[in-house]
Amino acid sequence: MPKSTHRPLFTTTGETLVIADFTPRPPRTPRGPGPYRRLFTHPGTRAFTAGNLLARLPMGMFSVSAVVMIAGTRGSYALAGAVSATGLAATALLAPFTARLVDRHGQARIALPATLLAALGSLALLLCVRRDAPAWTLFAAYAATATTPNIGGMSRARWAHLLKGDDKALHTANSFEQAADELCFMLGPVLAALLCGTLFPEAGTLVAALLLVTGMLLFTAQRSTEPPVQQQTHAKTPLRAPGMPPLLLACLAMGAVFGSMEVVTIAFADARGHASAAGVVLGLQAAGSCGAGLVYGALKPRGRAETRHPWCLAAMTALLTLPLLAAGTTGSLPLLAAALLIAGMATAPTMVTTMTLVQERTPAGRLNEGMTLAVTGLLGGIAGGSAIGGWITEHISPTAAYGVPLTAAALALMISLAATP
C-alpha cells in the first residue's frame, strides 16, 4: 500500500479528527546504468573486451619472464637485460608497420598471424635457453616477438568505430582501456615472477604465450565489432598529420617518466635492503593510475582535449615532486610508496587525453597506425628514461635520480604548451 500522509482536522468541540490521505506519491524514476555498464550494452563488446584483456596481460609478463628465465639459467643479468632491450627496440621499429597492415587489411587478417609469429618467437627463446644455445640465438628469437600487434590500439579502434559521434561514451571507453593497461602492467609482472619462481624458469614465458594466442583468437573472432577497412589512397601518414609530431614528442618524454621511475625505484628499494618490495611499490603507482582512470572516465570532460592536455601534464609534473621529496627528505620506502600512489593518479588522465588527441589527429583509415606510433614513442622514451635514470643512479644516487621523471614530465608539459594554439 502506498505510504499515506495525515491531515489533522479540528471539530467545534475541540476534538481532533485525523483523515488519512491515501494519495499515492509519484513513483521514483529508476536510475539508469552507469557509464561503464552502458558501454557493454553494445553487442559483442563483452566478448572482444574479454579477449583483449587476456591478450594484453602478457604484455606485462614477457619482459620479466625473459629476464628471470635467462638470468636464472645463464647467470647473467647483463645478457638478460640486453636481450630484453633488443626485443623492445625491435618492437619500436616494427610495430608501426604491423599497425599499418592492420589498417590496410583488417584486424583479423593481420593480427592473428602476427600474434602466432610472435608466440613462436617466445617459444623459440624458451627452447634456446633450455637447450643452452649460443647467446646470439636469444637475441634473434626475442626479436621475433616484435610482430605482436598493439592490442590496446586495436581495442580503442573498435570503440571509436562503435561509439562514433558520442564523445562522452568514447571518453569513458578510452578511460576504461587505460585502466585496463595499468591493471595488466600491474598484475603481469607479479604473475610472471610467481610462475617462474614457484614452477620453473620457463613457466612465465610459456603461460604468457598461451594467454596471448588464446586472447587474440577470441578478440579477432568478434567480427561484428571490427572496424571496416577504409580506402587509404589519399590518406596522409600520421607522422605528417597536423599536430601529431609534437604530440609524439610529448609521448617520448612521458615514456621517459615511466622508464626512469621503474629503474630508480628498484635501485632505491635495493639500496635500503628491500629489493623484493620494489614490485609492490611500483604496483601502487599503477594502482593509483588505474583508480584515477576509472574515476576520470565516469566524469564528463570539459573543453577540448587539446586544452585539457597541458593541464593534465601540469598535474603530472606537480605530483612527481612528491616522490622526489619523499626520497630526499625522509628516505622512507613506505612514504615513497604513498607518494607514488598519489603521483600515479595523474598518469591515466594524461594518457587518456593523449590517446583522444591521437584519435582526433590521425587521418581516416590510419587509426591503428597512429595509436601505435604513440606507443612507439612511449617505448622509445621508456628505453631512454631507463638508461638516463640508471646512469644517474649509479654515478650520483637513487634519490637524485628521482629528478629524471620530474624533468621528463616538465619537458612534456613545455612541448604541449608550445603546440597548443
From TrEMBL:
Listed Gene3D superfamilies:
MFS general substrate transporter like domains
The record ties this protein, via InterPro entries, to:
MFS, MFS_dom, MFS_trans_sf
Q: Which domain of life is it from?
A: Bacteria
Per the record, the coiled-coil ranges are: none
Q: Where are the transmembrane segments?
A: 53-71, 77-98, 110-127, 133-152, 246-269, 275-299, 311-329, 335-358, 370-393, 399-419
Does Transmembrane helix appear among the keywords?
Answer: yes
Where in the cell does this protein reside? Cell membrane
Q: Alphabetically list the UniProt keywords.
A: Membrane, Transmembrane, Transmembrane helix
Q: How does it sit in the bilayer?
A: Multi-pass membrane protein
Q: Which PROSITE patterns match?
A: MFS (PS50850)
Q: Where is the Major facilitator superfamily (MFS) profile domain?
A: 243-421
Q: What is this protein called?
A: MFS transporter
Q: From which organism does this entry originate?
A: Streptomyces justiciae
* Species lineage: Bacteria, Bacillati, Actinomycetota, Actinomycetes, Kitasatosporales
